[in-house]
Amino acid sequence: MARKPFIAGNWKMNTTPAEAKALAEGVVGQLKGFAAADVALCPPFVCLETVRGAVQGSPVLLGAQNIHWEASGAYTGEVSAAMLKAVGCQVAIVGHSERRQFFGETDESVRKRLGAALAAGLQAIVCVGETLAEREGGQTKAVVERQVRAALQGLEPAAAERLTVAYEPVWAIGTGRVATPAQAQEVHAQIRGLLAERFGGGAAGAIRIQYGGSVKPDNAKELLGQPDIDGALVGGASLKAGDFVAIVKAAG
Ligand code: 13P
């Protein structure tokens, strides 16, 4: 089954609204006429409004970096699906390893965030991946299996249509130490198998699995050439329009 590549830029805690506008306009301008991959930009919450203006009228999707599972209420610092949709978001990232590492995110909270995003009709990118200690301890498969199973618990099969999984080995994030295509493909194939167990082979064959962790213009093509690598979740390189666009074009 042919899957359309999906490249998302996770800007993390970078850019003011003015910087975000310029970056998004650069990406949109350089991608004019390019339709071979789906593309999303995920700026900080405070930049969503200006980036929405920049991507309007283009195929580039607007994404958030996190989402809360409740509709509203006393949850200081959190943002709901309805709020994200109201500012034009079509995509939400959930369970990023930085959220898990630094902000107490658990398999259970990731499951709730993912469920809320999908129930609201958003596309969701759920992130999984092992730490360096877990890889060196031979735990990669077990960790990824636990994270994937926990995230998907209770999901309606129909929601799988809007699901993307991002495999982001923690040791490759922001380190310049990229997983080899073979290392990444091995885990992607494992994830595809878990998706097939959960949703059936047909649905699993349609779900995009992104790789994330030090994706750059010079390594993107080889990674994206692997049979189960259907896109990329790009951090650092997504902060330069030219680099991000080069990665997108490597997918198409
Ligand atoms: P880098 O591309 O900076 O390694 O970040 C990857 C990432 O965490 C994307 O979500």
Verbal overview:
The chain has helices spanning 17-30, 48-55, 81-86, 97-102, 107-119, 132-136, 140-152, 181-199, 201-206, 217-224, 241-251, and strands at 6-10, 38-42, 61-64, 91-94, 123-128, 163-167, 208-212, 231-234. Helix 1 (17-30) runs parallel beside helix 2 (48-55), helix 7 (140-152) packs parallel to helix 8 and helix 10 (217-224) packs parallel to helix 11. By secondary structure, it is of the alpha/beta class. It starts with 5 loop residues before the first strand and ends with a helix. It has a single domain (6-251), classed as Aldolase class I (TIM Barrel), CATH 3.20.20. It has an 8-stranded parallel barrel with strand order 1-2-3-4-5-6-7-8, surrounded by 6 helices. The mean pLDDT is 97. Helix 2 (48-55) links the parallel strand 2 and strand 3. 1,3-dihydroxyacetonephosphate binds at residues 10, 96, 168, 173-174, 212-215, 233-237.
Oligomer: single chain
Beta-strand content estimate: 15-25%
Low-confidence stretches: none
In angstroms, what separates the terminal alpha carbons?
A: 16 Å
Global Rg: 17 Å
Order of helices and strands: EHEHEHEHHEHHEHHEHEH
Strands, total number:
8
The biggest sheet, with number of strands, parallel, antiparallel or mixed sense and barrel status, is: 8 strands, parallel, barrel
CATH architecture: Alpha-Beta Barrel
Share of helix among residues? Answer: 40-55%
| Major beta sheet, strand line-up | 1-2-3-4-5-6-7-8
CATH superfamily: Aldolase class I
CATH topology descriptor: TIM Barrel
- Compute the number of helices: 11
* Name of the level-1 CATH class: Alpha Beta
